[in-house]
Every structure is written in structure tokens, then in C-alpha cells.
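Subject: Sanity check before I submit

Could someone independently write out the C-alpha cells for this chain? I want to compare against mine line by line before I put it in a report. The sequence has 165 residues.
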Amino acid sequence: MRDPSAWSKRLPVLATALAGLGIATYLTLYQVGAVSHVWEPFFGEGSRYILKESAVARDLPIPDAALGALAYLAEAVLELVGGADRWRTKPWVVLLLGLTAAGLAVAAVVLVVLQAAVFRHFCTLCLTSAACSLLGASFVPPEVLATLRHLRRPRSRSPAVGDNG
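---
Independent answer below. Compare away.
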């Protein structure tokens, strides 16, 4: 694959991360009471239930939306680090991005399953955030795979200083 870290391939992930960050920040503001109500066009009191009354909202020491916002921020920052050759020059950035995107995707699936199967309430913006996570994660694997292939490639061994052979 040519230029797996090209900006044209990274911008969709950056866009979904920034959208997710905006949504998660707004939901965090609602969870901490800085915003008195949350926009909910489809599910009536679903957002209020999910964000204020669900076991997840009640049992975590900090708002769960804040965790999402931090993860989206990390994903956005990781997308901005390095140039088009970062899959070779900064493989740790690409691998961290892969882990972050995978974590966001797993969290998205768990969020949707919990809303459908456990809470039986839905939150429009929570589902939109989950869609951002899954869409962003769908763009990351080619760069991660190129990085892993690059790291597995045998290196030509140069003799160390003082080596005779």
C-alpha cells in the first residue's frame, strides 16, 4: 500500500474524532449539570435515563461521556502527529492510534448493546457518538497493518563499531 499515512486517509478519522469529541463534551456538560437538558429528537426521555439514571451513569466516579471525550481527544491528537511516512518513522503513534480506535469501537458496541438489551432506552447523541467511533475505526486498520508489516520486516544488520564481521 502506498502512503498508508497520507492525510487523505487520516482526515476522515480526524473528522469523526472531532465530531465524537464535540458530542461527548456536550453530553458531559449535561451529566455534570452545566447544561440543563440534552437534545433528544427521537427517544423521549431516553437520553435523560441513559445519561443520568442508568447503572453506568450512576456507578462511575466520573461522567462516562467524559471518558469518551478523552478518548476522542486522544484519537484526534494521534491523527495529527507525524507526516505521511509516520507508519515507518513513528510506528508507536500508529499503534497507539489503532488501540485507541479499537477501544472506541468496542465501547461503541457495548454502549449500543447496553441501551438495547439492558436499559431498554436509547440516546440519540450516544448512538451518534457510537457511529463516529465505528466509522473512525473502520479507516484505521490499513495504516496499522502497514506499520505492523514494516516492524516485522527483517532489518539489514550493520556491523557494530568494533565488530570484525
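---
OP: Matches mine. For the report I'm noting this point. The chain has one domain: 7-152.
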